[in-house]
Amino acid sequence: MSFRLSYRADPGNPWFSWQYARDNSDTILAAVREHTWLTARAVLIAALIALPLAVAAYWFRRLTGPILAFTGVLYTIPSLALFAFIAPYLGIGAATVLTVVVLYALLVIVRNAVAGLNQVPEEVREAAEGMGYGRWGRLLRIELPLALPGILTGLRLATVSTVALVTVGVVIGRGGLGQIIFAGFQNNFYKQQILTGTLLCVLLALVLDLILAGIGRLLTPWTRRGRPA
Amino acid sequence: MSPIEAAVVWLNDPLNWTNPGGVLDRIVEHLSISAAAVALGCLVAWPIGLWLGHTGRGGGLVVLIANVTLAVPTLALLTILPLTVLGFGRPSVVVALAVFAVPPLLANAYTGVRQADPEARDAARGMGFSGWQLLRRVELPLAVPYLAAGFRTAAVQVVATAALASFVNGGGLGQIIRAGFGLDIAAGQGQILAGGLLVAGLAILVELLLAQVERVVTPRPLRATRRRANRRAADAVAGT
Lengths: 229, 240
Prior knowledge:
The structure holds two protein chains of two kinds. Chain A is mainly alpha-helical. Chain A contains eleven helices and no strands. At the A-B interface, helix 5, helix 8, helix 9 and helix 10 of A face helix 4, helix 5, helix 8, helix 9 and helix 10 of B. Chain B: It is found in: Cell membrane; Membrane.
């Protein structure tokens, strides 16, 4: 017995619809907020841990290898495995997601910060020493500012990859926009839901990246001065 | 019972290994999915990367692709692709993973050809090599260490990401972790941790194995400079 039901021929599952976005604006906005908040906190915490590590690696050459190797190993561990290691201890919640993404962001920030610090020209370092700067004064007034482009590159890369990584938090139900994407998948592949989540994720990464790039431009005016207008 | 004890208990149960859908099955699934994805990635990325490097154009394109894929969540591709013609199942998982294998493969193939000694290139030209011969007999052999480095990065990344295939029931070791989370956290913690150890162990094993392969295919005189070259290729991806 086969008769076609006309209303089933087109089940109404478009790739995008404003109707869906309007009807579910609360859920979507809540997810965007959670996602942004998680990302911001993660990058901030990661930077607070990574920068001292980078300075330590820069000051004490013997520590460079171990520090980079340690963060590198953390980076090799698959994200889902990291969730598996941490969830039994920190439980199901934002703390677990935050820890995982912080551990992941470390490598990118440390590596770029070390590269930035190592780019400080030897003459500049010696000149600063000759002017009587101590180790800390030199670090804060000379070396860190000169390493800023490298540090900012690290922060930008870390931010973009963190935005993508937070979605893996679905495994414990705290994935921000990943929650929307995954709900769409479970909702008989509700395409517009998946695509809305995805687009917002990419958009969020782009916006945060642009904000950091803007901050970078403001903080390092000397990188623009040399260029002919 | 602490999570570690529970994990040890879980790993010591032979049935967890040999059952249908047990660890052994999952490892085979995991590796076959990963191998297919890496192979597909190589098939797409290497010819393009080598050609772009040969012509010396498209450096910006390589960086752009790397940056864009960085921003796309794996979860999104894993859930979107089953809705396309690929359909639900193994093919869409393989394609999704292959997409993430492309940037390191592409960047290293491009850099590998680009870094070939300009003098060697000129000499080959002087000997009357055509563009194709130049690529095949001079640039390609010189790029092999880079190709190996890209292969290693891509393969490790794919093995790590393949764990996420479990979100769309794509199989692999991730299924063990997901099933563990499906239980209560107290009941499943052993399984969760054991699954995590297996996934991480596999990724690290692949990394070590391919590091050896990379060493073997790198000509001895080049080995000392590899570390620096690696860093440079990584920086090319990072867009610095």
